[in-house]
Amino acid sequence: MNLDFGFLSWDVLSGFVVKGLLFSVQLTLVAMVGGIVLGTLLALMRLSGKPWLVMPAAAYVNTMRSIPLVMVILWFFLLIPLVIGRPMGAEMSAIVTFTLFEAAYYSEIMRAGIQSVPGGQVHAGYAVGMSYRQTMQLVVLPQAFRNMLPVLLTQTIILFQDTSLVYAIGAYDLLKGFEVAGKNFNRPVETYLVAAVVYFAICFALSMLVKRLQARIAIIR
Amino acid sequence: MATWDWQVFCKDTVSGEVAQGCFGSGGDITYLQWMLSAWGWTLSVAALALVVALLVGSLMGILRTTPHNGLVLLGNTWTELFRNVPLLVQIFLWYHVVPALVPPLKAFPSFMLVVLALGFFTSARISEQVRAGIQSLPRGQRYAGLAVGLTLPQTYRYVLLPMAFRIVIPPLTSESMNIVKNSSVAFAVSIAELTMFAMQAQEETSRGIEIYLAVTALYFVSAFTINRVARFVEGRVAVPGMIGSGK
Q1: What's the predicted TM-score (pTM) here?
Q2: Residue to substitute from A70, A108, A202, interface B, most B β-carbons within 10 A
Q3: How far does the CA of residue B239 sit from the closest CA of chain A (Å)?
Q4: CATH: 1.10.10.10, 1.10.260.40, 1.10.3720.10, 3.40.190.150. Which one for A10-216?
């Protein structure tokens, strides 16, 4: 068969694809920031040593990590309207879902990061009179975050790839944009190919950046 | 919240009537039967994809540790290619694009195309694990093998791989569990697996919570079983005194 990419003009791209790309990027960024904040809280709960904090955090993280993401997306799309009492758009539902889902994965990374900071740092914090909160905020977390930065960013690349799964609830993301364009011009083969190339270009470029960063950041011990 | 209605699983998928004994008669099936068959599809996709992923992933991982630049490049390219495109997009490529470009593949059942997509996607991750496993061995192992006159393939077969594969069992276990989870993406090309069942049965019966709970539980059971089997294998192949053998 003959491939014909001629129909993919700038007008077509800006009409169908850019809107989807913007949503994919927005979803990735919100879920990353929200996920890292919630994930750090979950990690602190799990490392607190208090059973009433450890157990719910561990249960949450393990549950999220053992359910397929597509099922989690479907679950939230079903449950959110029941909880808040009114329907919620697919895009908004996706943002809530990804933030809460990614928190579980980021929390495992932050847990490893916090554990990579030597115990002496904590004792030193207490010794100079800092509270638990100050020790964590000013001494431990900055180092944990720096140590884990490459891993956090790698997880974010995976997150960006996973955003394509909002297909399950029909949200309009990058992939959907290409799909709609392909349907309109009856050129699905070409648009799926271009979609793959675009995803590859973005993810490959980001992973190269992370690799360079990894070489520059040494783990503080 | 509405009340539970677990009888939904005993309903006939055509008539919507509750079937006697929860199993349909005369060729009709109940939602329970449909779900069990969907579970079978999920496990089949996952198992076959795992075989593909282990074979291809190990090969590519090994190539990346050989002293031949061409083979290293091949392994690296493969890994980057299949790692940096989302699984859903890869499934669409196999389903819509590849048969259009390679006409003989049009006769291929879509089930096999999804198995290849999921298998190759996972092979990129397995190739990373296998490469890391081989590179974690001391360099002297390889040199010792070559020094006693083994060829390079023999060095891999008798010296490096027996150790490397034992080291990578834990990460391969989690990849095997991931493959069960990732098989859910096959819903997008209408494979009759668990997620597809969940979406359709939810729509037909409006008993989403019961259906999703059951499907989620089946995913749990599948992943947990793999975890146990892998632990068993790990224990059986452990070499006393080696890393992670626990002895």
Answers
A1: 0.90
A2: A70
A3: 28
A4: 1.10.3720.10
Closest residue of chain B to A66, computed from CA coordinates: B220
Q: How far apart are CA A84 and CA A168, in angstroms?
A: 21
**Chain B contact set for A209 (CB, 8 A):** none
Phi, psi of A27 (to 5 degrees): -60, -45
Q: What are phi and psi of B149, to 5 degrees?
A: 95, 5
C-alpha–C-alpha distance, residues B247 and B243, integer Å? 9
Distance between CA atoms of residues A139 and A136, nearest Å: 6
Residue B149 falls within a domain, yes or no?
yes
How far off is chain B from A118, nearest CA to CA, in Å? 24
Tell me if B212 and A75 make a contact (CB, 8 A cut-off): yes
Q: What's the rounded Cα separation, in Å, for the pair B64 and B58?
A: 10
Q: To the nearest whole angstrom, how far is the Cα of A161 from the nearest Cα of chain B?
A: 5
Q: What is the pLDDT of residue A1?
A: 63
Q: Is the pLDDT of residue A221 over 70?
A: no
Q: Which of A25, A28, A30 is nearest to A156 (CA)?
A: A28
ipTM at complex level: 0.90
**What chain B residue is nearest to A206 in terms of C-alpha separation?**
B84
Domain residues for the domain of B34 are: 6-237
For chain B, how many structural domains are there in total?
Answer: 1
Sign of CA dihedral A142, A147, A149, A154: negative
Question: For residue range A56-107, what is the model confidence (pLDDT) as tens digits?
Answer: 999 999 899 889 999 999 999 999 988 888 888 889 999 999 999 999 999 9
When CB atoms are compared, the residue of B87, B97, B184 closest to A193 is: B97
What is the least distance, in Å, from the CA of A88 to any CA of chain B? 16
Position B154 in a domain: yes
DSSP annotation string for B14-79: TT-PBPGGGS--TT--BHHHHHHHHHHHHHHHHHHHHHHHHHHHHHHHHHTTSS-HHHHHHHHHHH
Asked whether residue B246 is domain-assigned, the answer is no
pLDDT score recorded for residue A159: 95
**What CATH code is carried by the domain that includes residue B214?**
1.10.3720.10
DSSP state of B11: B
| B100, closest residue in chain A (CA to CA) | A1
Instruction: Indicate the residue type of A149.
Output: L
Q: What pLDDT, on the 0 to 100 scale, is given for residue B243?
A: 56
